[in-house]
Design a protein that fits this description.
The protein contains 4 helices and 4 strands; from the N terminus they run αβββααβα. With about 130 residues, the protein is of the alpha+beta class. A hairpin with a 2-residue loop joins β1 and β2. It starts with 12 loop residues before the first helix and ends with a helix. The relative contact order is 0.23.
Length: about 130
């Protein structure tokens, strides 16, 4: 039920480039979500995600990896509503979650911010 399988990880450089060229963005401190609706995903996949933490803000890889793990866990536990909505409306979505704070926030803060981003994303689709 709460999985983060390999097929929902965004790895396509073409889609990532398209995401930043044509994508829309929503921000809720300390996260920013850049998203775009696409058609290029495989049939059984309705959503692909990626996470990013700036090397400029966090020089140490240990800290960047800690934040990325927290962001992926928030995605894994809270993506079900968005995935069900996309499935029902036959839409496909690609998004990247970007960490924007200069200091390390707790998992609770990251999860709270991600939940608000998902609600804003669903609202922007017009539920």
């Amino acid at each position: 039920m709460y999985k983060y399988p390999k097929k929902i990880r965004l790895r396509s450089k073409k889609l990532i480039g398209k995401l930043f060229d044509e994508g829309n963005a929503i921000s809720k401190y300390p996260l920013r979500l850049v998203w775009i609706e696409v058609d290029e995903l495989p049939e059984d996949v309705f959503l692909q995600t990626a996470v990013s933490v700036s090397k400029k803000r966090f020089k140490r890889a240990v800290k960047r990896n800690l934040l990325k793990r927290r962001m992926r866990e928030a995605i894994r536990l809270n993506i079900l509503d968005l995935e069900n909505y996309l499935r029902e409306n036959n839409k496909k979505l690609v998004f990247m979650l970007i960490y924007t704070s200069n200091d390390i926030k707790s998992y609770a803060d990251i999860e709270k911010s991600f939940k608000r981003l998902v609600l804003g994303l669903i609202d922007s689709f017009g539920i």
